[in-house]
Amino acid sequence: MLHAVSRMLRLSMPSWCFCLFAIALAVRLVAVRVGQLERFEVPGTEWENIARHLASTGEFANPFSSPTGPTAHSPPAYPVLLSLVFRLAPEDSPRYSPAMMFNALLASVAWALLPALAAAAKLPLAVGIIAGLIGALWPPRLLAEVTVTFGGGQLRALAWILLHLLTFRWLRVDCPRPWQWLVYGASWGVAFHVDPALLPVLVFWLAILLNVHRPRNTMVALARVGLVAFGAVLVLLPWTVRNRLRLGGWVFVRSNVGLELAISNNDFALPTIPWEAVPPRWDVWRSWLQAHPSGSKLHRARIRAVGELAYNKERFAEALAWISQNPDRFLLLSLQRVRHFWFFPTTSRRWPNWLVYTSVVLGALGLVLMLRHHRLAGLLFLGDWVAYPPTYYFVQVMLRYRYPIEWTILFLCCYAIWRLSRTHCHKPPISIRRTPELLRTVLAECGPSARPSHPDPPATRGVSIHRRDLQRPS
Predict the structure, then answer these.
(1) In a 3-state reduction of DSSP, which class is residue 384?
(2) Is the peptide bond before 70 cis (omega within 30 degrees of 0)?
(3) What's the Cα-to-Cα distance from 224 to each of 170, 178, 184, 185, 228, rounded to whole Å?
(4) Which residues is 460 bridged to in the sheet?
(5) DSSP label at 433?
(6) pLDDT of 334-353, one tens digit each?
(7) 79 vs 53: CA distance, rounded Å
(8) Predicted confidence (pLDDT) per residue in 7-55, tens digit
(9) How far apart, in whole angstroms, are the C-alpha atoms of residue 404 and residue 414?
(10) HSE-CB of 160 using CA atoms within 13 angstroms
(11) pTM of structure
């Protein structure tokens, strides 16, 4: 047993990544099979409807239960990948099993990359291993990881981790060339197809990169920002042109901002979506369905009549009108959403919720310690926590919105535990340069009669001098 443990401790970083991937995938596949998680799927979600329509007709359209035409309601990456799964799945397979296995694969890759992330950030490999092992064995949000209903949160988390890896390696480059800044921007353009809410994170991180690779003058800094922006625009251009031709207007990745604001800020609005409230608010859910195209034929007919972009402009104006008439209510909802985003209640039972609350507080402590001891890594994680969540402070909080940031909470918790254990358990070695001074102090305290005959003086007043400290440096 001890031999096996010692061999595991000597594993390389790629070996740990592979082991964590195998563990995470096995846990999720067993959970899907044994726990029969397919029964928790809610049929007819927007991204599932788009994916099935894309698989059958090749058109990115119809996010709701009845046809509404071409759409940009969802970022394209997850529905496109999901459509490939639906197209390649055997005809006699269960409705959701292939998609759930695909989601489990994405989530397993995300957790398996945490040791590589720790190595790239020059953090202790143990932090990434422990965080990945906890995430692999005990998924924080199992349903959010494997079900189609939660809308690809595992893909957004994976894209975010890959961006961390790329940026940490970018920080090691002494003097990036123009084409490297262009490629970095193109990587963000790919990520925006997964989650456009990462745009504020890019702004925060870009400021850090410009500070590390400090240019000679302002014009050079502006040129680098322009190269990053140009690389992102190049990748986004095909999807943007498609939206212009099919929807009749310019859209940054997705078009449903007006709908989300209107459905989240009204007379019956809650901080979170009604069925994820604790306890669920089914009375509000009925009102929610009547105001959303998912449950309202009138709203779907309106989309068909005026088009998706015009419909969202109408809902955006509706939301602004309500906010201007109810500023106090809007402020209260926004503050409640801040609390719900970070301290998302899981059930009506207390101990799981307290586990979530404790992890957030410990993660915040880990962030403070990382800013103190590993500044660059801490700044990137600070950007995650500061720039990403505000988008969701003004719309209803959902678990799939919070899931992409949960791996950062777990990672920072493990860093905090490692740093605190190192602070309390590690005794700094005595410097060789201070050895003569310590010897004189010990001998003076002991007096001439107490001088030892052996070369190692005894410990006095908590000072312990070892033989290795007396050796002359080579």
Answers:
(1) helix
(2) no
(3) 14, 7, 10, 10, 6
(4) 463
(5) G
(6) 999 999 899 877 655 555 67
(7) 10
(8) 555 678 899 999 999 999 999 999 988 888 888 888 889 999 999 999 9
(9) 17
(10) 28
(11) 0.84
Round to whole Å and give the CA distance between 263 and 111.
33
User: Distance (Å, rounded) from C-alpha 132 to C-alpha 19?
Assistant: 10
pLDDT tens track for 143-202:
888 998 888 899 999 999 999 999 998 877 777 788 888 999 999 999 999 999 999 999
Nearest to 162 by CA among 207, 195, 135, 125: 195
Contact 469, 435 (CB under 8 A): yes
- Return the structure tokens found at 306: 């005026």
* Contact indicator for 198, 191 with CB cutoff of 8 Å: yes
Give the tokens for residue 182. 């262009």
**Closest C-alpha to 261, from 310, 322, 194:** 322
| Lookup result for tokens 């908590």 | 462
Burial class for 216, CB neighbours closer than 10 Å (0-12, 13-18, 19+): exposed
Give the H or E element holding residue 155: helix 153-170
- 124 φ/ψ angles, rounded to the nearest 5 degrees: -60, 135
